Amino acid sequence: MPSANTALFGLLTVFLFSLTLVESAASPAEHRKLCTVHACRDGSDDAPAVLRAFEECGNHGRVEFLNETYHIESIMNISGLNDVEIDLKGTLLWGTNISYWLNNSMPMGYQNQSTAWILGGDRISFQGHGYGTIDGNGQVWYDFIKGASNYPRRPHAITVYGTTNSIFEGLRFVQSQMWTMTVIHSSNVLLQDIYVSSTSNSSTSTANTDGCDTIYADNITFHRWEVHNGDDGISPKANSTNILVTNSTFVGGAGLALGSIGQYNGVFETIENFTAKDCTFVNTTHAAYLKTWTGEQVGYPPNGGGGGIGYIKNVLLSNFTLQNVKLPMSFTQCINFAGASGNCNSSLFSISNVSFLDIKGTAQQEPIVSLQCSAAAPCVNTTVEDVSELALRNGTLMKGYNCDHTMGTVGFNCTGHTCGTASGDGTC
Ligand SMILES: *[C@@H]1O[C@H](CO)[C@@H](O)[C@H](O)[C@H]1NC(C)=O
Ligand SMILES: *[C@@H]1O[C@H](CO)[C@@H](O)[C@H](O)[C@H]1NC(C)=O
Ligand SMILES: *[C@@H]1O[C@H](CO)[C@@H](O)[C@H](O)[C@H]1NC(C)=O
Ligand SMILES: *[C@@H]1O[C@H](CO)[C@@H](O)[C@H](O)[C@H]1NC(C)=O
Ligand SMILES: *[C@@H]1O[C@H](CO)[C@@H](O)[C@H](O)[C@H]1NC(C)=O
Ligand SMILES: *[C@@H]1O[C@H](CO)[C@@H](O)[C@H](O)[C@H]1NC(C)=O
Ligand SMILES: *[C@@H]1O[C@H](CO)[C@@H](O)[C@H](O)[C@H]1NC(C)=O
Ligand SMILES: *[C@@H]1O[C@H](CO)[C@@H](O)[C@H](O)[C@H]1NC(C)=O
Ligand SMILES: *[C@@H]1O[C@H](CO)[C@@H](O)[C@H](O)[C@H]1NC(C)=O
Ligand SMILES: *[C@@H]1O[C@H](CO)[C@@H](O)[C@H](O)[C@H]1NC(C)=O
Ligand SMILES: *[C@@H]1O[C@H](CO)[C@@H](O)[C@H](O)[C@H]1NC(C)=O
Ligand SMILES: *[C@@H]1O[C@H](CO)[C@@H](O)[C@H](O)[C@H]1NC(C)=O
């Protein structure tokens, strides 16, 4: 390499970033500042350059990533953005220094969980064109935690925090370190054409690799997600209101999971107005899973807790196609410390107005639904209709409805009882 180039390369490496300032020629109304982030050629940490780009262009600007691989070796807290376009044409690849992340991952605002990346602001438009990729390099984490639930400080891939009036589109999330995405303290966010895949190539599990969780979030819309993972697909948790999921496919994992909720003793939390329609579930444990903690607190979050109050109400689940799903719809109110079964009858958390309509395809075993509701707060008004095309894999039409403590069933009569344990998959 000629010495001038070497010197230039050295300079770029020292500054770790290169920002270009241009005025948009397209429209005089759009005087957006453009920051293009260039990856360090030597594979060193690109996070400082990314942070600089957002400092420079995070207000009425545009941050562009080229078709390159950017190495993210340190935490990024990118907050308070205002009217910014993010254009990802390449890959953000997270580093695998486990001790670094365990020491530095940031609190994400719930359950003592931690994150590698916080992104937030008003009017964010994050475009990935169907190929822009966020790669958590998660295999090292799947192997490291050896199946432990909620391993302390294990980082989530991205936390969309304090975000309003924003759109995330055409992004691919692969091999997330833990939960892929959480949308928290946010409202009016549209997330569409998103691909998520976290699968282990070793014998270790991909537990806790949720697709997207919503927490303290209102009016969040998911169109055309495809999620391959080992845990909750899309999961509204504490204070999730007006959440819509359409035209999405879930492979492996738990399916749609409402909760778990009710983990904080005496704390009032809700999930209200959750609608999912036109979705496909392949090899998932459930299409829909509603789970609350027991009435007694045992231990502390993230792996312990219980005694929470509040409600899940107005849930509409319709037009689902199932392939080889274990148990189409399950309620359990027995979630207890680290998954151990607790008292299934003590939860005061109430579940009402849940409808499961127009469900077809195949499941592994009876029943169609297992509604394990707490004696202390029976489930009110559960509807199951248009499931006559739901069959076992050998073609036998399904007919079982297992229930405990349901008040008001529409479209079906209970045919048996649930296992009465936290085993949400219906296996007694
Ligand atoms: C990105 O670059 C790689 C080669 O470096 C190329 O194969 C690929 O098609 C490019 N992707 C896009 C979307 O331009
Ligand atoms: C990993 O990060 C720690 C800081 O947490 C640092 O001391 C160590 O040198 C890093 N290891 C490598 C291989 O970069
Ligand atoms: C992220 O940055 C914002 C704005 O500077 C700050 O208020 C917040 O506390 C930071 N979050 C974390 C977890 O460091
Ligand atoms: C909900 O969010 C969408 C953006 O996804 C927005 O267009 C719509 O106006 C919001 N609805 C309400 C009631 O704020
Ligand atoms: C969902 O799929 C249906 C049928 O293919 C289509 O009519 C509808 O426009 C789609 N909606 C969205 C939001 O993708
Ligand atoms: C959750 O929602 C409940 C009911 O609306 C409200 O009382 C509580 O303050 C909310 N919690 C948070 C942290 O926003
Ligand atoms: C739930 O939807 C109903 C009907 O659209 C609406 O009246 C109610 O305000 C919504 N609840 C919340 C918490 O937004
Ligand atoms: C049901 O969902 C499928 C996609 O899974 C879609 O193609 C079909 O149009 C939907 N049916 C209705 C009646 O909306
Ligand atoms: C679903 O599971 C079956 C049986 O284990 C397997 O053959 C099939 O490839 C799986 N489908 C997907 C999309 O992973
Ligand atoms: C029962 O649930 C259905 C569907 O969620 C709703 O339309 C109906 O109003 C509910 N009935 C009562 C009494 O709340
Ligand atoms: C189909 O499978 C179910 C459950 O394994 C079994 O009970 C039933 O007898 C089978 N039906 C036929 C026709 O083989
Ligand atoms: C439920 O049982 C009642 C009483 O036997 C019967 O009248 C009703 O038709 C049954 N409903 C369904 C959906 O099978």
Automatic annotation (TrEMBL):
Top-rank lineage group of the source organism: Eukaryota
One GO CC annotation: extracellular region
Keyword Hydrolase: yes
GO molecular function, one term: polygalacturonase activity
Keywords on record: Cell wall biogenesis/degradation, Glycoprotein, Glycosidase, Hydrolase, Secreted, Signal
Main subcellular localisation: secreted
Cellular localisation: Secreted
Family: Belongs to the glycosyl hydrolase 28 family.
Protein name (Swiss-Prot/TrEMBL): Alpha-L-rhamnosidase
